[in-house]
Amino acid sequence: MDPLSYNSPAAILEQTASQLGCSPVDKKLAFHLDEQDGLRHFKDCFHIPKVKHLPSADTTLVNGERDSVYLCGNSLGLQPKKVKTYLDEELDKWATTGVYGHHNGKRPWIFGDECIVDLMTDIVGAKKEEVALMNGLTVNLHLLMLSFYKPTASRHKVLLEAKAFPSDHYTVESQIRLHGLDVQKSMLLVHPREGEETLRTEDILSIIEKEGVSIAVILFSGVQYYTGQLFNMPKITKAGQEKGCFVGFDLAHAVGNVELYLHDWGVDFACWCSYKYLNSGAGGLAGAFIHEKHTHKIKPMLIGWWGHKVTTRFQMENELELSSGINGFRLSNPSILLVSALHASLEIFSEATVKALRKKSVLLTGYMEYLLKHYFSEDKTNPENPFVKIITPSCVEERGCQLSLTFSLPIKTVFEELQKQGVVCDIREPNSLRVAPVPLYNSFEDVHRFIEILGSALAVAKHPSSDGKLCNASC
Q: So where does pyridoxal 5'-phosphate get bound (predicted)?
């Protein structure tokens, strides 16, 4: 990636605006950036919800026929248009051939997951034999922890961020209890420094250095769900392994969002869902990774039929021939309907490439940050003015596309007003509004429109008697 593109979105925005003879906050810049965007056609591959279909939208404030400003891919990605086509193919095959569908068609059901695993490997930076598509994220995390977490009297701790996603937290707690250990003694949490929202890499590495000999497993997010912080996975992996720890990552908010190189980084294990940035639909088929260095060392603790080698699986002799590596962790044949939905999205990623998407994402999120800071930074000379604080790191190497925002005004009022005017984003307790401009289907115009609507929402939150009609972002 061009270092300028990666490190200085603000410089690009200002330089481009200067060439256009306009301000960086002028909508003219958004239109120009969209015209120059080589990935803009991928938006047409997705269904964009109309404002009139959103349950909380107010069509007296905004034209119901307009596309919504969908900034919630961090929670649920939009539906690729090919999903219905691929689902219909499998439903038709089932209807017309019944059981013969297991061996026929572009996705024979017996090999359904394996038919699309190649499309996933580039997204996570792994070899084909290191990746499996199976189950849901938490199921996969439990399966992996059962094999990698082998506590001893001296090495029994699991290190994770203090505000890990609840599933990760609960998984670690239950795995510790499964071994008869005390959660308070064996779960080691990393907290931000007082007065800070995000974790410093040096603090994470310091704890690993200090506590490493007692840590069995380090389990971190790739991207932190609440703050949007992108952790330095290569450094954490290297530091942990030098202390003899296994290092794994929950990539729910990282996969399809940032560039990943799991094999090259030497990560021991990882898992992810596919319904956020990978757009596979709610409850979509999840994925898991085990590095090839563990192929013959790490075995599944719980075994199912699908982990048996396919060459002899159907001989039904109940004599296990376990597939090597992560494939031995598969339990059951995955739903072909989930496979089909994921297939539709992964094909788009294959065409667009993660590297190109990340380059656009850096500028797209940088554009949102630039506008937020321009219009809504805290004005110490006028404390009555509402302001927005970005708790996500400003350094582009420490974030994906998501920005997490807090407000000087009641956040729920701001959120409700955004919803009324066709913005789709979400709140995470206690006080964060998450907005994620996704490079596959969001435009620079979407970002500019969001900023305009946010200005209106803040005006209403400040003066509840306001009618909520769209005003200039600076109001």
A: 137-138, 165-168, 221, 250, 253, 275, 305, 333
The reply to whether 3 falls in a domain is no
The answer on 223 and 127 residing in a single domain is yes
Q: Are 131 and 117 in contact (CB under 8 A)?
A: yes
Tally the domains of the chain: 2
- Could you read off the pLDDT of 155-206 as tens digits, one per residue? 999 999 999 999 999 999 999 999 999 999 999 999 999 999 999 999 999 9
5 CB-near residues (< 8 Å, 6+ apart): 12, 359, 362, 363
Same domain as 296, residue 401: no
Binding-site residues for pyridoxal 5'-phosphate, please? 137-138, 165-168, 221, 250, 253, 275, 305, 333
Contact 391, 26 (CB under 8 A): no
Please report, in range form, the residues annotated as the binding site.
Answer: 137-138, 165-168, 221, 250, 253, 275, 305, 333
> Phi and psi dihedrals of 471, rounded to 5?
-125, 175
pTM (2 d.p.): 0.95
What pLDDT does residue 2 have? 40
- Pairing verdict, β 287-290 and 388-390: unpaired
pLDDT for the residue numbered 435: 98
Closest C-alpha among 270, 267, 236 to residue 251: 270
Note whether 136 and 51 are same-domain residues: no
Q: How many angstroms separate the first and last alpha carbons of the chain?
A: 37
Residues in contact with 140: Cβ distance below 8 Å, sequence separation at least 6, in sequence order = 134, 271, 286, 287, 288, 329
Q: What is the residue range of 289's domain? A: 84-351
Q: Is the pLDDT of residue 404 over 50?
A: yes
Question: 2-27 pLDDT, tens per residue?
Answer: 433 455 899 999 999 999 999 999 99
In angstroms, what CA-CA distances link 193 with 159, 168, 186, 204?
17, 22, 22, 11
Task: State mean pLDDT over 343-357.
Answer: 98
Classify 105 in phi/psi space as left (phi over 0), alpha (psi -120 to 50) or beta.
Answer: left
